[in-house]
């Protein structure tokens, strides 16, 4: 095949490439040729800052020398071997390392290829656990999930999702899920450092409100009130139906796809307590927020919560090779061990690429990078992101500015997100902006100048009245 021209590439893209989450009737081909650091370059050579970390996975930016070298080195030894009854040495080392890093006794690691599958694994393991644990409760087949939740697009993950557009049409093939309203983050004032947990963790700051600053004590009380109200909704369901509920599933601290909906402090630990009280398992889906995004290695670390399942993806390999993982505890794992020759308690589930060696090598190099200064440097970057967000929050078009770690988001008083996104594209920033929402979720190691550029462009876009 001869090398296509750029026009041909665009033509083929339009004709043959059905893109994810993309209304194809309106699709305008945008073909990326290479990427370096926080910048994507399209086939015309135009540069775009990647303000969404390539959908939240490029933790270290692109073409990071350490990760690229690790993948190439691994490729020279072995690209892949199955995880059925065997495993790549590098995947074994990764499993041990994840077990060492994870909160509490999350010692057992099941690898898969994407975040949806990591959630699917947790859901299936939870259900099977209740059938074969010491005191089986086979009626526990439902899940409690939150409104506006997003856990991926396989069938189980779709079922526990709460965003109608992704979910409703598939209703007939989805399992039974009880959906509870999450805490209403709009009811919470965004006082700088207070109320939302700023005092809990120096890496967690919230932009001061653009108008009517609430009294800090009042902010705390409102956050506590909203947290208590949401937990009460969960408890009401568990009190009635725990004997039919296998697990509660939650996106710890931030429901990203819901529009960066941030939970008040205490919500996650409150959920843990309720799950313990009512004998229901807790699945923490950290696919989007794990590995540094919230300022700590795991979001669960902020509230010292040990879930029964921890789902990881995205940052796990910094976006280099697809991989995800579901971690669980000995209590859960042991229920899957056969106790005699006639018993079959095996978890009959797996993916061709589970434990892929290239992905494991990318993950090991990513963790090396985290441990050699990236995590320590995060508070300064988070503070910089917060400063820029605070500045923006003064714009009369901006409301509900909020930040958790390296996630900054705000709403617009008018639904001009699309126009802001278009303006940013025209000015070399790829920004996720739609309806009345804009957020910035850059690579964790973004250069200060690149971060400033992203915010300058957003400010200019707002000023230009796009
Ligand atoms: N869980 C959460 C919280 C997510 O944000 C996502 C993706 O955005 C997923 C699961 C699904 O991950 P993947 O797209 O890798 O299947």
UniProtKB/TrEMBL annotation:
The record marks 21 as: Participates in the substrate recognition with KAPA and in a stacking interaction with the adenine ring of SAM. Substrate binds at residues 150, 314, 350, 432. Pyridoxal 5'-phosphate binds at residues 115-116, 285, 351-352. Pathway: Cofactor biosynthesis; biotin biosynthesis; 7,8-diaminononanoate from 8-amino-7-oxononanoate (SAM route): step 1/1. InterPro entries: Aminotrans_3, Aminotrans_3_PPA_site, BioA, PyrdxlP-dep_Trfase, PyrdxlP-dep_Trfase_major, PyrdxlP-dep_Trfase_small. The keyword DNA repair does not apply. Pfam families: Aminotran_3. The modification N6-(pyridoxal phosphate)lysine is found at residue 314. Its main location: cytoplasm. It catalyses: (8S)-8-amino-7-oxononanoate + S-adenosyl-L-methionine = S-adenosyl-4-methylsulfanyl-2-oxobutanoate + (7R,8S)-7,8-diammoniononanoate. Keywords: Aminotransferase, Biotin biosynthesis, Cytoplasm, Pyridoxal phosphate, S-adenosyl-L-methionine, Transferase. CDD domains: OAT_like. Homodimer. This is Adenosylmethionine-8-amino-7-oxononanoate aminotransferase. The lineage of its organism: Bacteria, Pseudomonadati, Planctomycetota, Planctomycetia, Pirellulales.
